[in-house]
Amino acid sequence: MSDQEVFIGSIDQGTTSTRFIIYDRLARAVGSHQVEFTQFYPQAGWVEHDPMEIIESVRICMAKALDKATADGHNVDSGLKAIGLTNQRETTVVWSKSTGIPLYNAIVWMDVRTSSICRKLEKELPGGRTHFVESCGLPISTYFSALKLLWLLDNVEGLNEAVKKGDAIFGTIDTWLIWNLTGGVENGLHVTDISNASRTMLMNLKALDWDKSTLDTLGIPAKMLPKIISNSEIIGNIAKGWPITGIPISGCLGDQHAAMVGQSCRKGEAKSTYGTGAFILLNTGEEVIKSNHGLLSTVAYKLGPKAPVNYALEGSIAIAGAAVQWLRDSLGIISSASEIEELASKVTSTGGVYFVPAFNGLFAPWWRDDARGICIGITRFTNKSHIARAVLESMCFQVKDVLESMHKDAGKKGEAKSEGTEFLLRVDGGATVNNLLMQIQADLLGSPVVRPADIETTALGAAYAAGLAVGVYTQDEIFASGEKMKKASIFKPVLEEKLRKKKADSWCRAVSRSFDLADLSL
């Protein structure tokens, strides 16, 4: 079979949309379709999705992408070898395995309804906020699935009874999708991959299995939980009733881990994905590095049941591209996200305006759920271009904060440098099409930013993992970053060091002003 006759499909299920992309043997997209789905905000700080709508979005995207590829002359029906899956992490679903019906809406990763549960645990447990860090690498936070599951067990009528009967099961979005794709109520597979499991707060990072001590402490029944598998292995075949049937699902990674594979990140290399939030991961190889500077220790990837585990340090930023959406949808300053670059380019600085997008608190490295969004330094001189530029800078400052923490935790030995002895940050995600954003990022970091030719690296990473499991790709091909660098765009810093430092100091002052604002009166 020629390279053009071999295809891998990739399901990319994000926070606001679902995509299905079909790649050929040379990792070129030959067909794709994307569908946005509804975000629900029942109360301030609550964010939910309808799990059934997500299932339907996958179905639509599969069918449309297949139609497009076929219309362009690609014989996908006979050449499709495997399906990969990547997904928004931490988002939590519980459902009935006898009916297939969700017992509540999916609670999204950025939802903060569990704040009171977090505070209670911090007070009761001897280790406080870091009680579980030794086992799972994560602090007690509204971010992680375990706390969302506790809320569901406490608040959803009939759920505990369903758990006792063995009918209620838990999963992140990958688990929910795989269960439905492989048959649902007709013997659907209840599994999760190692990267998604590492974000629940329930998996032991070294044992790579559910941590019994944590489950006992939190009172979470083990029988609700899925089986943990690697990121690259044949999981099961797609069942009847889908636009594609009988094809193996053989790759599964959380979105940020998929981006690491798509970006060919080996030990010492870091990537930053700019989406609804921003997520920076540094591959630390086969060593778990414990952070002393507000980062998370997590799994990077495990590309096969017998493959070694690569770990990572991660800094998670809750609001990045979502701040641009806020300018568009809530303030009406722009009518489309793409307009922000032109608007912000009308000024050469923010005019002393600093915007801290702590809409639901701040994640790494601050971890302040009492923070709220602020815009300071406003004068009569300030116009909407200054505010737009301040929003872009806020994304870049947050990434800078995380990378500085990574440098401190990993040390010089933990970072790979370019031939010019510079640390290169690989970037991806929809927002990276904004050249101004990328230049601001390089300026505030004081080091180069590398944008690949294909910025949608999450879907590509899932395709690589799936293709690896069925022999379509080799690890050498996946991690051949030299060839990819030749096609990349590189943004180099031009900002003077003195001004860079002054701006960073001003940003830190602005961040400190955002603390302790959660109880402001309505």
TrEMBL record:
It catalyses: glycerol + ATP = sn-glycerol 3-phosphate + ADP + H(+). The keyword tRNA-binding does not apply. It holds the Pfam family FGGY_N. Its EC number is 2.7.1.30. One of its GO terms (biological process) is glycerol-3-phosphate biosynthetic process. GO terms for molecular function: ATP binding; glycerol kinase activity. Residues 8-262 form the Carbohydrate kinase FGGY N-terminal domain. Residues 271-469 form the Carbohydrate kinase FGGY C-terminal domain. Pathway: Polyol metabolism; glycerol degradation via glycerol kinase pathway; sn-glycerol 3-phosphate from glycerol: step 1/1. Keywords: ATP-binding, Glycerol metabolism, Kinase, Nucleotide-binding, Transferase. CDD domains: ASKHA_NBD_FGGY_GK1-3-like. InterPro entries: ATPase_NBD, Carb_kinase_FGGY, Carb_kinase_FGGY_CS, FGGY_C, FGGY_N, GK1-3_metazoan-type, Glycerol_kin. One of its GO terms (cellular component) is mitochondrion. Belongs to the FGGY kinase family. This is glycerol kinase. It comes from Anisodus acutangulus. The lineage of its organism: Eukaryota, Viridiplantae, Streptophyta, Embryophyta, Tracheophyta.
